[in-house]
Amino acid sequence: MNSFVGSVALVRHPEDEENRWLLKWSDTELQYRMIIAKRLEGETYRECLDREIAWELELRQNRDYLISNMSRLHIEEILQLDDECHGTFFLLEFFAVDLYGKTSKASVEANPALRWISTQEILAGQTQQGEGIDRHLVALLKKFELIGRHKG
Question: Most exposed of 11, 39, 63, 149 (fewest Cβ within 10 Å)?
């Protein structure tokens, strides 16, 4: 069985907080996904996410974004999608993240791989243009109701 231990960044839109979320296009997976960090030995869930946000979004730690002190949820879950032969064990923590300052917002807006995607699109598993969103992520977000069902 595959397993993944790490954290997920729920990066909220600066003006439309719980209605739009920052996702990144993966050229290898051909889908959007939230910033996901694999936890390394000796790291906390929050520390691994801090490292990954800085790297993937090209932002400065302790300056361009704020990670909540406590996770929204800690899960230990085996998830098997309908078309999979074997499930994946997830040990995850989800953290709310907010961009801080004009520099971070400008940097995110300038990156073509990043996109603000509505809650409705995420829960549907695809953007309005038909681009896919990570199915495992969608299944976990739905099961644990981690993001609201607001229209966006």
Answer: 149
